[in-house]
DNA sequence: TTCCGATTGAAACAGCCGTTTGAACTTCTG
DNA sequence: CAGAAGTTCAAACGGCTGTTTCAATCGGAA
């Protein structure tokens, strides 16, 4: 019962009560993404959110608690699995499913509509995983990846458990994440790349095409994936 | 003349004098990569390097100066372009060139031999670019990417200037960087992945195979890459 | 209104952390 | 050896920063 107060407001509460709470979350997400956990002072966050310094301690039980909640909030705002599953027509050809998946992924990651700090925040977690990453992998990433695996398996013409599915799944995701995670370098290499909606669609199309070629080319030649170095050592 | 003392030792000095200096650089690189600039206390660095707390101020004029030098040091240790160009047989088939490129890339990025903190440090620059990133792109990344583009162009059967080259080049690099940049999540999704040398070779082989299939499949169908949204807007 | 819990506010606290200090020690030069 | 310059050391300083405190305010229930 010691955390009764904060728990009550963190779940679902009367909208008025959550006012400064969400303001804090959005402000924190922005600056955490920009400067990282250690690079940010809660005084800055509170100033940006128009809240008192004590508010973060009251609502989130400290800076770390705030960060944890920001991460959840970020992923919650990002592409939801449900949204994806709804968007994917169940009885369409696998290539079309892949197209929907990739395009949705790109849109939710790069398009300006959503809180734009999602990507940076998650990229930070990749480099410097916090305790919150485990929750994130379990609740958000695993189901999305499972969905992708089912599509890949269909395209390869094998069962989901086939070892090749893992690797071609990685090929798909890697080509999606690349454009977000390496933006600074990419924009320096290609100054004419502005990440407009049209360009994002163009890139997504390329990824879909590339992966389709790769997987169709690999069909029936998947023996090499049967023996995997195990890596126990 | 105010910085005469430190300048004298930073350039080239008698080996005995640089002892704690390089020890400091290596220790700092390790922890900076792991926890980021703000997440690191110089007391930790000094403890790891077996140096006194005042040493970093004496040799580098402060924490920031140390970070700056660490970044230079990291670039210097990273995969050299020359090394790559030497390793690639000039008159081999393009697919073999790609194989050498990808394998060398993976080895220099993931294998334990080199200072293993290079990758993380550079990944941090992607998220939170410092002033040093421009130098990095110019001196290290651009020439490597140019080399890759020449290989890709050969495999696609087009000139280097062809717009498709850019995108397939990205497909190759993205699948390489993925395994380094997203290690934490990947290892959570696949606990049996230990990044042993054998596994790294396995992954690199997959990437080469995938990209080969994709590019061979795309040969002759590159019309769609001719019209690019320009993105001026 | 009056009471009570939830929330906000200003100020102070506690301790961490980059930096500085000044002396001791080493090494080289004359 | 004497002296100087370069380097290392332990200790302390200064201020930044997450947290706490406690009083003030708000909002609804009796």
Describe the structure.
The structure is a homodimer of 233-residue chains. By secondary structure, the first copy, chain A, is mostly helical. Chain A has 2 domains: 4-76, Homeodomain-like (Arc Repressor Mutant, subunit A, Orthogonal Bundle); 79-222, Tetracycline Repressor, domain 2 (Orthogonal Bundle). In chain A, 70% of the residues lie in helices and 0% in strands. In chain A, helix 2 (19-35) packs across helix 3, helix 2 (19-35) packs across helix 8 and helix 9 (132-156) crosses helix 10 (163-181). The termini of chain A are far apart. Residues 1-17 of chain A have low confidence and may be disordered.
CATH topology of the largest domain in chain A: Tetracycline Repressor, domain 2
Number of domains of chain A: 2
Mean pLDDT of chain A: 84
What oligomeric state best describes the polypeptide chains here? homodimer
CATH class of the largest domain in chain A: Mainly Alpha
| Percentage of β-strand residues of chain A | under 5%
The helix content of chain A is: 55-70%
The fourth-level CATH homologous superfamily of the largest domain in chain A is Tetracycline Repressor, domain 2
Main β-sheet description of chain A: none
Largest interface: A-B, 69 and 69 residues
| Low-confidence region ranges of chain A | 1-17
């Amino acid at each position: 019962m010691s955390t009764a107060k904060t728990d009550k407001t963190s779940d679902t509460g009367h909208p008025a009560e959550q006012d400064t709470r969400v303001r804090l979350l959005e402000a924190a997400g922005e600056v955490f993404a920009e400067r990282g956990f250690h690079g940010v002072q809660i005084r800055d966050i509170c100033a940006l959110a128009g809240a008192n310094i004590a508010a973060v301690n009251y609502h989130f039980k400290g800076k770390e608690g705030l960060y944890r909640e920001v991460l959840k909030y970020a992923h919650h705002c990002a592409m939801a699995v449900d949204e994806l599953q709804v968007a994917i027509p169940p009885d369409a050809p696998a290539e079309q499913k892949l197209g929907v998946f990739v395009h949705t992924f790109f849109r939710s990651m790069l398009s300006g509509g959503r809180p734009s700090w999602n990507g940076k925040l998650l990229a930070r977690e990749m480099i410097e995983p916090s305790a919150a990453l485990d929750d994130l992998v379990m609740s958000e990433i695993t189901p999305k990846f499972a969905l992708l695996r089912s599509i890949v398996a269909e395209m390869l013409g094998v069962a989901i458990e086939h070892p090749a599915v893992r690797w071609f799944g990685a090929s798909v995701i890697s080509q999606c994440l690349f454009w977000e995670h390496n933006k600074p370098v990419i924009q320096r290499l290609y100054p004419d790349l502005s990440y407009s909606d049209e360009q994002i669609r163009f890139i997504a199309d390329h990824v879909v095409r590339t992966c389709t070629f790769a997987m169709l080319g690999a069909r029936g030649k998947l023996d090499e994936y049967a023996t995997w170095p195990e890596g126990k050592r």
